[in-house]
């Protein structure tokens, strides 16, 4: 991905930051998605080996312009919960999402805050929806560059 002190390139106006899902065989899926997404200009941006993942599976991130938007991994059963990350240019939107999702019946899966393991400006909150899907709101701009949310 990027060095820990670098901010990755991302489309500030995009609402979909990234999506992640389980596959039976990450290498087989890499070959498939690499070919299938080539017309969109997407390639493998990053591979995360099993020694660095929570599940012991391999993760691939595909995207373009240096930023992975589609992630898949093996090491978990098929049909396991999906991960969907929504992008915003304002940290207060992340906070509002977290509060609204809890009020709507979601379960906390990570309070709003910086996630240094991704990079120093990765401000995110995570909620489990009623079906157990991991829904994230993320702002990746430095705090001083925060723009007002909707």
UniProtKB/TrEMBL annotation:
Residues 15-140 form the VOC domain. CDD domains: VOC_like. InterPro entries: Glyas_Bleomycin-R_OHBP_Dase (IPR029068), Glyas_Fos-R_dOase_dom (IPR004360), VOC_core (IPR037523). Pfam families: Glyoxalase (PF00903). Coiled coil: none annotated. It comes from the Bacteria. This is VOC family protein.
């Amino acid at each position: 991905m990027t060095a820990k002190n670098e901010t990755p390139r991302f489309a500030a106006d995009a609402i979909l930051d990234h999506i992640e899902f389980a596959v039976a065989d990450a290498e087989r899926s890499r070959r498939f998605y690499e070919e299938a997404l080539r017309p969109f200009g997407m390639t493998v941006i990053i591979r995360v080996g099993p020694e660095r993942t929570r599940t012991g599976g391999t993760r691939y991130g595909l995207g373009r312009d240096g930023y992975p938007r589609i992630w898949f991994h093996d090491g978990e059963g098929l049909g396991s919960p999906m991960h969907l990350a929504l992008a915003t240019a304002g940290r207060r939107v992340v906070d509002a999402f977290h509060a609204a999702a809890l009020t709507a019946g979601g379960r906390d899966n990570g309070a709003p805050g910086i996630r240094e393991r991704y990079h120093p400006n990765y401000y995110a909150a995570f909620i489990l929806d009623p079906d157990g899907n991991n829904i994230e709101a993320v702002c990746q701009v430095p705090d001083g560059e925060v723009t007002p949310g909707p």
